[in-house]
Amino acid sequence: MLRFAVLRLISMGVSLLAASLVVFAVIEIIPGDPAAFMLGLNADPQAVEALRDDLGLNGSAPARYLAWLGDMAQGDFGISYTYRVPVADLIVQRLGVSLPLAAYALTLSTLIALPVGIVAAAKRGGPVDYGLMGTAQLGIAIPNFWFAMLLVLVFAVKLRWFPAGGFPGWNDPAQALRALSLPALALALPQAAILARVLRSALIETLEQDYIRSARAKGLSRAQAIRRHALRNALIPVLTILGLQFSFLLAGAIIIENVFYLPGLGRLIFQAITQRDLVVVESVVMLLVFAVILVTFLVDIAYAAIDPRLRRHT
After folding, report:
1. How far is CA 82 from the centre of its chain?
2. For residue 120, how many other CB atoms are within 10 A of its CB?
3. Where in this chain does the record put each ABC transmembrane type-1 domain (predicted)?
4. Do the domain assignments include residue 29?
5. Is residue 147 within 8 Å of 186, Cβ to Cβ?
6. Which is more confidently placed, 304 or 22?
7. Engineering a disulfide at 94: which of 6, 101, 185, 265 sits with its beta carbon 3.0 to 4.6 angstroms away?
8. In terms of residue numbers, what domain contains 127?
9. What are the φ and ψ backbone dihedral angles of 100, each rounded to 5 degrees?
């Protein structure tokens, strides 16, 4: 297990280094002069030169890249051109919204998907299976921003059970969770539909294995065979989807955060793009890349814990 984890850590480091090269090239090299881009086409040349000095753009690209890596390793993401505060402070502040939102949505998604997928597999081919999978397909087809607006209309405007937008902060955790409930539900339902379909397919495939037939022949019911034997082996593709979903929920909630006016990481990067604040864009994108690679690493470790056979193939 230790050798497996070390190899995955090395792979994670290589992937992170390659991603940092791509992010640096796309933001600081390919567009041309980042300072001129940030100030606009009609910017004063002296202002452009001053901004270049401020951002440290006068050195060679390799030197700037190494300096950027070194600063990030120390937690220094630079100073935001728009807000004139350290980017690290902005990220920490916005993560206080985005991270709980992603965790909340993933929890809801899992709590909805697991029973739906298990029941659909247990009732395979019956009306319950068709009804659940038809509903799941509808959940996949509906855009989450449209569903978010529907939730606001019903639960915020009509019933007044939840706020329509904004975030009160964590001074009152109950109110904070209440403000995140509708956004989390809007994010969770489409992901739950995907997860339920994947779990159903994995369970059905597992139920066709010989050891499941042997268990059934010994007197176990279909539900008992699923609970005692099939579910554990069907979790590997489910873990893959869960890892991808958490990365998406953390990095891809831009539209939902804008619908609900949440001061999260997605809204920060959207504002940074519109304001041409490349310092913030570069830092946040790199942080999100790191989050995706880290989640992938954790999923690989979970694979090995669930199925020891995977360790022997490394």
Report:
1. 26
2. 25
3. 95-299
4. no
5. yes
6. 22
7. 265
8. 87-313
9. -60, -35
- Residue at 225 is within a domain: yes
Task: Find tokens 């700037």 and name the residue.
Answer: 64
Give residue 33's pLDDT band: very low, low, confident or very high (50, 70, 90): low
Q: Tell me the per-residue pLDDT of 240-252, one tens digit each, with 9 for 90 and over.
A: 788 778 777 876 6
Look at residues 283, 275, 287, 232 and name the one whose alpha carbon lies nearest to residue 99. 287
Say how many C-beta atoms besides its own lie within 10 A of residue 283's C-beta.
27
CATH of the domain at 150: 1.10.3720.10
Q: CA angle at residue 297 from 296 to 298, to 5 degrees?
A: 90
Instruction: Determine contact, residues 283/77, Cβ cutoff 8 Å.
Output: yes
Q: What is the pLDDT of residue 104?
A: 92
Kindly state the average pLDDT of the residues 205-229. Answer: 71
Single-letter amino acid code for the residue at 87: V
Q: What radius of gyration, in Å, describes the C-alpha atoms of the chain? A: 24
Structure token digits, residue 299:
């999923």
Q: Is residue 246 part of a domain?
A: yes
pLDDT digits over 84-107, tens only?
888 888 888 888 888 899 889 989
Q: Kindly state whether residue 18 falls inside one of the protein's structural domains.
A: no
The secondary structure element, H or E, covering residue 238 is helix 231-251
Q: What's the distance, CA 12 to chain centroid?
A: 17
> Total structural domains in the chain?
1
Residue 2 CB: number of other CB atoms within 10 A? 7
Is the model's pLDDT at 152 over the cut of 60?
yes
CB 64 within 8 A of CB 56: yes
DSSP secondary structure code for residue 86 in this structure: B
Label residue 276 left, alpha or beta by phi (over 0 means left) and psi (-120 to 50 means alpha).
left
**Which pLDDT band holds residue 32 (cuts at 50, 70, 90)?**
low
- Whole-number average pLDDT of the chain: 81
